[in-house]
Amino acid sequence: MSNYIRVATGEVKMGGRRDILSSTAIGSCIVVSAIDFNLNIGVMAHVMLPGTAPSNSKKGLTKYAVNAIDKMLDIIHKNNSTLDDVHFCLVGGGNVLIKEDDTICENNIKSVTEIFKKKHLKVSAKALGGILRRSVRLHIENVEVYYTEGESKEMLLWSRSLEW
């Protein structure tokens, strides 16, 4: 039986073999999913804002892209995983309010993708941009990442079988 772990905005959570990490109501935010199928661990971050948390911040640090991704990587390293064995998927960054002057979605996409380039992290799959809200589910035991857009049925974004 699987254990569902909900990852809310600004949170970073880890799960093991029997866990399913999920995040919903993804608009301009970006959810970063990471899975090491050799160790049967997954980590998910629901990034709300680009860049780094202000230096005087004491709470909500993982709302920011740099802080959330750094925390993910710390969790991955503490669990003896190597980045060569980790697959990352990115979902979100949509302009769901359909505002012409709304740049947060573009800034989030740019921030996260620049962090990935700087840290030499590979993205195995992504569903970014557009105007529809999304949800994402990381099924660790099955080594699969699913997502929805708007009212769509759940679709496979990435799985281990796609790598073979």
Describe the protein.
It is built from 3 helices and 10 strands; from the N terminus they run βββββαβαββββα. By secondary structure, it is α+β, with helices and mostly antiparallel strands. It has a single domain (3-163), classed as 60s Ribosomal Protein L30, Chain: A, CATH 3.30.1330. The longest helix has 15 residues, at 104-118. The two termini are 27 Å apart.
Note the topology:
Layout: E1 3-6, E2 12-15, E3 19-26, E4 30-36, E5 41-47, H1 65-78, E6 86-92, H2 104-118, E7 123-128, E8 134-139, E9 144-149, E10 155-159, H3 160-163
Parallel strand pairs: 1-3, 6-7
Antiparallel strand pairs: 2-5, 3-8, 4-5, 4-6, 8-9, 9-10
Descriptors:
single chain, about 35% strand, about 160 residues, 5-stranded mixed β-sheet, about 20% helix, 60s Ribosomal Protein L30, Chain: A
**CATH topology annotation:** 60s Ribosomal Protein L30, Chain: A
Please give the alpha-carbon distance between the first and last residues: 27 Å
**Uncertain residue ranges:** none
Query: Percent of residues in beta strands?
Result: 35-45%
Number of helices: 3
Any idea what the shape is? Answer: globular
Widest sheet: strand ordering:
1-3-8-9-10
Mind telling me which CATH architecture this is? 2-Layer Sandwich
Q: What is the string of SSEs from the N terminus onward? A: EEEEEHEHEEEEH
The secondary-structure class comes to alpha+beta
